[in-house]
Amino acid sequence: MIATAWRVFGIAFSLAVIVAAAILAGTEPGQYQFATALAGDQVIGFGVRTDDLTAYMLAVVGVVATCVQVYSIGYLHHEPRIAPYTALVTLFTAAMVSVVVADSLFLLLIGWEVMGVCSYLLISHYWERRDARSGAVKAFLMTRLGDVGFLFGIFVLGFAAKTFTISELDPAKIPPGALTAGTLLLLVGVVGKSAQVPLQTWLPDAMPGPSPVSALIHAATMVAAGVFLIARLYDVFAAAETTFTVLAIVAAITMVFAALCASAAVEVKRVLAWSTVSQLAIMFAGLSLGSEKGRHAALFHLLTHAAFKALLFLCAGVLLHQVGSAALVVLRRYTRRGALRKAMPVTFVTMTIGLAALAGVPGFAGFFSKDAVVEAAWSTARNGSAVGWIVLVAVCLTAVLTAFYCVRLWLWVFFRTPALAGALGAFEEEEAMADLDEPDTSGLRDGSLLMLIPLGVLALGAIGLGYVEGLHLNLGVGLLTLVLAIVGAMPAYSLWQRGADPRPELLEREFGVDSFYDKAVVTPARWFARLAVAGDRDVIGGYVRGFGRTGTLVSQGFRLLQTGNVQTYLTAAVVGVVALAILAGVIGA
């Protein structure tokens, strides 16, 4: 199974390189239809296409997925479930590739839904854990909820345009009402798949899955599919101004909301998960500007984010693999004296690179791509666009918060804690203060070579990918984002130096959204479920049982008549004849 998966990945990666090389060499984009179906008088075609966006996304998916597969061999080498895991990761990647190459809305939908099923199975890889099972179910239900709107959006646009072929969708030929309704319905699916407000809570709860799965979901597949979809249908979405306004508002709320949640999270992977939600919102914000500059900036940030976010999750996987916990404060006996930094230097360096790119430190990839979004927002805002101002303010505030939680995470995990007073919040102080001696780090190491090679490759991407567009950097915007990063980093450093890690209850509870959903959705659903069970058991089941018992009683009555006595039968016959005769006489009179 593993050998077969490697062959598949080798072929897929080679094809991605060939397609990218062909596009870069100037080969004209092309489409190929391989099947058609009829729905009434509507022809539904299934086809694929190759263009610059296809090559771009294939490169992202191919590189990250290959790194994840190589890393997984070292990470799960003792796992008894390595074969099904490898098969699911391969299918997951193939589903994302189907989304990328699709020139049919229905082919795209197939890949979209297969990704949802694979994510459910991969998140619940450790199915014996309750949090893994519940996280998988939550992810499945919330993304399926969004996919209902996605499916209806496909119907609205396809029937309005009289085609389901993506390259043939012409917004000028679609009635304005159908265009707005169709794109808004597609946006519902995008919001669910990419964990944007109000369907954002599933992604942080998907962290019980293996760390390589988290890297794949957060960097190159699943959540990135929503950004790709809007970029693919950009002309259609751009023609629906209302949809882009809604997208800008959702993105602005989401990026700030998720960054605040990340600032209070106490688990490494949960911090990174909320960071993904926030960074995806930045991409959507760039797309919502409705300009080619905004689209380019969003896709550029998608590229750099794939590198540094995959790197960060794989580094978190090394920590989890070696220490046994991904929680910030559970690592305390190692962090008090900087033990992890000393025992795991490669992980420390690569995770530092990933956090620097995420925080937007100058010279790293995230700095350039985030600045591209800010510059695009500023260009739109100074033309009097309200959407531009919304995006600009939200991205700048998010940049401050991002620098804060990146520095907080970096210092608390890798450096000696000067003091511990007030730092652990809900964790018991006496437990935190136990074992103050130098911890035993003899068992800690960076991991196998198969785990370190992908870290090195992704670290190079987290640095070098920024220079693809680095020559076009706006110095004014760069200075602004640098100041914002410093403003965010300073309080994180100050709190760490004082050994304090305050987490307001509202942020620690992640604004109580899960509690609200529990009361507003889960509890009523359970009540209706109990009502349905009671109705089925006591009403419908009562009728069924009543008919059964009536039949039984009737049969028992007839059985009493079957005595086997001939005299009794003759008496009954005579009585019956006499009764019939009397009845006939009465009727005749």
TrEMBL record:
UniProt superkingdom: Bacteria
Membrane topology annotation: Multi-pass membrane protein
InterPro entries given in the database record: NADHpl_OxRdtase_5_subgr, ND/Mrp_TM, NU5C-like, Proton_antipo_N
Membrane-crossing segments per the record: 55-75, 82-100, 106-127, 139-161, 173-192, 213-234, 246-266, 271-290, 310-331, 343-366, 386-404, 409-427, 447-468, 475-496, 569-588
NADH-Ubiquinone oxidoreductase (complex I) chain 5 N-terminal domain boundaries: 40-84
Keywords, in A-Z order: Membrane, Transmembrane, Transmembrane helix
Protein's name in the database: NADH-quinone oxidoreductase subunit L
Source taxonomy: Bacteria, Bacillati, Actinomycetota, Actinomycetes, Propionibacteriales
